[in-house]
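Protein modeling request. Please complete all fields; requests missing the sequence field cannot be processed.
Requester role: graduate student
Desired output: 3D structure, C-alpha cell encoding
Chains: 1
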Amino acid sequence: MRHYELLFVLRPTLTEEEAKAKVNFIKEVLEKNGAKIAAQQDIGIRKLAYSVKKFERGNYTVYYFKAPANAIGEIERIIRINEEIIKFLTVKYDNKKEVAHWEKSVASIVNRNKKDEAAAKPEKKESEEADAS
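Delivered output (133 residues):
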C-alpha cells in the first residue's frame, strides 16, 4: 500500500448538506477501492487562484490515505465524472522523506481534530445543563 493525498474542490454553490454528502461519497469510493483513510481535513470555502468552470471560489477537502496503486485509476475516474467536483489533485508519496512528511501531516490533522472535538464537547454539556434548569 502506498501513501496518497487527495485534494478536491467542490462547487461553492452546494449547500452544506450537499457538500457533506459529496465528501462522504468520496470517502466511500476510497474505501470501496481498498483505501485506508488516515485523516480528513475540511479546509472550507476559499478563493481560487483562477476561475474554474466560471467559479471564483471552491470548497476544499483533503484526504490522506493508503491504497493499492491500481485503486487510484478507479478513484480518479469516478471523480472526473462527478460534476460537483470542479478540480482535484492526487499526490503519491514515494520515498522515506516524503512518507515521513505525510505521517507528520496526518498526525497534525488528527491532533487538531481531537482538540476541536474536545473544545466542542464542553459547549454541548453547558448547553444541556442550561436546558435542564
